[in-house]
Amino acid sequence: MPVDCAFQTSIERISILDEHGVYDEQLGEGLIPDSDVVALYRHMTMCRHFDEIAFKLQRSGRMGTYPQNKGQEAASLGAAYALEDKDWLVTCYRENAGLFWRGVDPEKILLHWMGDERGNHIPVRATPLAIPIGTQMLHATGLAWASKYRGDGGISCTFFGDGATSEGDFHEAMNFAANLDLPVVFVCQNNSWAISVPTRIQCSAPTIAQRGLAYGMHSVQVDGNDIFAMVKVVREAAERARCDNRPTFIEAVTYRLGDHTTADDASRYRDPEEVKEWEARDPMIRLRNWLEQRDLWNENQEQAQRIEDEATVSAIVKRAEEIDPPTTDDIFNWMYAETPKVLETQRQTLRTSSIGQGFDGT
Amino acid sequence: MANLTLVQAINQALLQEMEKDDRVLLLGEDIGSNGGVFRVTEGLHERFGGDRVVDTPLAESGIIGTSIGLAMGGLRPVPEIQFEGFLGPAYDQLCTHAGRMRSRTRAGLTVPMTVRVPVGGGIHAPELHSDSPEAIYSHNPGIKVVMPASPYDAKGLLISAIRDPDPVIFFEPKRIYRAFREEVPEEEYTIPIGKARVAREGNEITMVSWGASVVQCMNAIEESGRDIELVDLRTINPLDMDTIATSVRKTGRAIIVHEAPSNCGVGAELSARIMEQCFLHLEAPVQRVTGFDTLMPYYKLELEYLPDAERIGKAIVETAAY
């Protein structure tokens, strides 16, 4: 036969708890113990409150530019819940919920946006927020490679947006991970917008997920606002990585309910009707309803939680704001393990010499 | 002690460090069973296997980006970029991540990685196989830049680079990969990064150079018959200004020689620093003999572009007479 089919496939879309509150008992069977669902919901409320307060800190001049996470809590939290402490979380900047679950002190995230590098010193297996788009996927691939090489049983899970899938490093990371058999879970948070540019300009295929197929890796689309579905697909991807050293590409369909950052005004380019539709798909609304239907949560607990979150976040802000200011020495002292003499001279003379170069005039 | 070429000295350094430390692994294009396009990694794939000498997909940003991850994950990757002309795609990973990670994480994560890159002209190579981009990477804080000028230095500097806790770009001047041999000790030894070498002592003029140009300088000095001190930088970032300033204060005259264009080149930085630190000792303007501020020409004209003994000789005459 002169014309044959060389390859044919399809992309699965996984949803367990949908936006209407319909829960797939079969897929959800034994997925997350009830007590953990409560803990995950409580964690999300804290993260949402943290996000609101961080926004207010910027607006009141107490913090620099901040990217709101609102609406995307389920995607990174579901992934972090499904992973182990020995696994690397290699994030972008809208994964507060997952990072906090892993044990990153929320104060660190505030410090980062307050312009203080100490916010990036993280004593768990998580890399600091990645500001350039898409570059961190290669680090996740290398970290996974190191885990495999050392045989420590760890894997990497990296997060990025739909815009990042246009970057060359996305391609190179996917290609390295697939061809060198590296244990990486790629989680694309497709939140519909890369600042003002819609996903259609990043990808004209019906799904972003199908890009993963081109690299020969298992690829799936998931409702990113459904924490149950996130846990399921990341757990399966983690097992595929841990047992078979094969990467997975997950397209988590979600939505950025806030502006890109506090420096952005999304009303300039986004239809308010679209935002309203997605507000109804908020991951926290459906999760709260699910809990209340099962008598695992009620209004009194919600109110008590709110009070607890306010106290928690208030203490976090206090710690971040009360830290001793960094010194000018810190500009120089961390550049190299051993500070070269050229930097020593600049450090010592930055206030005494007009050129800061140790001009000796001899 | 054996008489080795620069390629053989590098190969020996890689082999010995890999034997000593199983965190060291090599990755790059064609470095496995092919032994690299210059055969620098010859025999290492057979000796250490495909897990430690890894042929990667053809992607420079990918090679450096994954090396950063490997290094943050506790290993000592030694990636090879096949030619300096192809280092560009990895610029972003080098400068926005490798050089920044220690400082931005306050040493929570570090990148002990050695990027090996053949550099420079003079071997009749195709377009983009003959450039000298050392200034570009020296301008970016956090990355050390090293370029040996002899087999002995290549081995000692490479071992230091691999053991260094910070990212190092190790430029290998391909023009002298096999141009001459030198006695190289069999055992391991290190040459400190950040220290220049006085390759030849003299009192009349200080000449500063690095890489393959050091050979051209030596030829020019010998032809001139003058009493010239030659400083081989060895490390381009961080600069060893003490050695240079000590020499210039003695001679009062300085000539800087490099293959790269003069505009914003390392020679410009050296010239400024010599002015700052030796102003009252200078008897003549600091002179530069460099590539032109043009593209590196195709190889029919490359010897017209590269500083040679004749051009350096003219600079010697002019500087001495000033």
Report on this structure.
The complex is a heterodimer of chains A (362) and B (322). Chain A is built from 15 helices and 8 strands. With 362 residues, chain A is α/β, with parallel strands linked by helices. In chain A, the strands form 2 sheets. Chain A has a 6-stranded parallel beta sheet, with helices on both faces. In chain A, strand 5 (193-194) and strand 6 form a beta hairpin. In chain A, helix 3 packs across helix 10. Chain B folds into 2 domains: 2-184, Rossmann fold (3-Layer(aba) Sandwich), CATH 3.40.50.970; 197-321, 3-Layer(aba) Sandwich (Rossmann fold), CATH 3.40.50. Chain B contains 12 helices and 14 strands. In chain B, the strands form 4 sheets. Chain B has a 5-stranded mixed beta sheet with strand order 9-11-10-13-14, with helices on both faces. In chain B, strands 5-7-6-12 form a 4-stranded mixed beta sheet. The longest helix of chain B has 15 residues, at 6-20. The termini of chain B are far apart. Chains A and B meet through helix 6, helix 7 and helix 15 of A and helix 3, helix 4, helix 5, helix 9 and helix 10 of B.
In short:
The complex is a heterodimer of chains A (362) and B (322). Chain A is of the alpha/beta class and 362 residues long.
Q: What is the beta-strand fraction of chain A?
A: 5-15%
| Spatial strand sequence of the major β-sheet of chain B | 9-11-10-13-14
Calculate the terminal CA-CA distance of chain A, rounded to whole Å.
87 Å
CATH topology title of the largest domain in chain B: Rossmann fold
Summing up helix and strand content along with how strands pair, one would put the structural category of chain B as: alpha/beta
CATH fold assignment of the largest domain in chain A: Rossmann fold
Most extensive contact: A-B, 49 and 54 residues
